[in-house]
Each structure stands twice: as C-alpha cells, then as structure tokens.
User: What shape does this take?
Amino acid sequence: MALLSARSLTKRFEGLVANNEIDLDVPEGSLFAVIGPNGAGKTTFFNMLSGFLHPTAGTIAFDGKDVTDVTQDKIAAMGLIRTFQLVQMFQGMSAAENVEVGFHLKTRGGVGAALVRPPWLRRQEEELRAKARELLAFVGLRAQADMNAELLPYGQQRLLEVARAMAAQPRLLLLDEPAAGLNAHETDALAEVIQHINQRGVTVLLIEHDVGLVTRIAHRIAVLDFGCKIAEGTPDEIKQHPDVIAAYLGAEAANA
Assistant: This one.
C-alpha cells in the first residue's frame, strides 16, 4: 500500500516548468529515493509533498487522504516530517535541547502551564530530556548531547538534524540531500542511521546526489530530469537504464 502518492504533480513558476506531471507511489515501510542532476526539480517536488509549495496541478495523498492544499504544519502533524538541504540549528542551544524542540508536535502545555508548572508538565519535560538523549545515542551522538549544537562538526550537525526530525515521530521522513557536504566516513555513518530508521518502521523518502549512497540503501529509486520523471525501478535497474545513464550517471556507470 502506498503511504504517499503523487499524481500528475506539476509546478510552474511563470514560464518555467519545474515539475511536469510527476506520478510517484511511496510504499509504506519502504526506503525510497529520488535522484537527478542539478536543476532536475527534486527540491521543488519535495516542497510540494511537504506543503511548502502548492502545486500548479495534480494531487498529493498521504495515508489515503488528499493533502494537496493542506498547510505544512497540518501535514507535519499527520506524520510527514522533513529535513532541509541547509542545516538549521537553534542557536545557543545544546544538541539535546535541539532535539527536545522536535517533540513540540507531540507535547501538551501552554502559557498557563508554563507559568504554574504543574507536576504533569515537569514529568513531561523529564521524559522529553530522556527521549532526546536516546535519539542522540541512536544517531551516534550520545557524547555530544550537552555540546553547543552550532559547534558540532558539519557531519554531526546533519545527524543531529535527523535526530530532531525523529523526535516528531514521523510515519514518513523526507530527507533533503542528507549527505551533502559529508566525507566518505560521515556518509557511511549516515547510511547506517537511515537504514536503522527504516528498520524501525518509518517510511523514508530522500533526494540525494550521492548515487553510491542511494544505490546502496534504497529499495526503489525514481529519477528526475528537467522536471520530468524519466525512470523508476530498483537500484540495479536504474544503474542500467539508458535514459538515466545519459541524463545523470554518465556512460561509465553502465559498467559499474
């Protein structure tokens, strides 16, 4: 069963067609990837799926519900959570505190509770602190929990962003270029984390330039070029697809 479905999804910016009638089904429980060269329309596609942009035409369904015109906060509350291509840390906060912010969709409270601080609020805060540290350990950042998030190396900030997204308890996690700027060791660590997230039952959809990463971990891959989907299949099928080789992977990939 598809957890996320896009039908004829199209986005135009005046005279530019960024996405043109894209169809995509992301099965529940899968680890799905979208690849394509720069300018292929990947981020625009993600922005529509997550409610940051409204499509010019087409429909989006999440868990069987039409979310084409639903706002991003309501989509997130339904369990569709995303990260961004540029790392965004909360300044002046520790790694653990950054993760705690990610729980806001799943907590209760308000101004009155913050002023009075009833026992249930204190218990909730204690639980969130413990859960934040559990998530940091899950992504390999247990020792960095109390460090200023801004001072972490870039690769660790990437992992921290994933931990913060997981705090929102996603059913579908959208990862926007998660390996951008990472070295080989950091990419391997990220790949392991993504696979473990998927093994926890979270459906993952990522867009990525690192073809080696994608073909190593994805169950299925869709390829965009000039705003159109030109191929979809397993990693082995994609590596051998002539249109993909011509548009993105390069002729040498056919012999990889």
Notes: The first strand starts at residue 2 and ends at 13. Residues 251-256 have pLDDT under 50 and may be disordered. The longest helix spans residues 119-138. The beta strands are 2-13, 16-27, 31-35, 57-62, 65-66, 80-82, 172-176, 203-207, 220-225, 228-233.
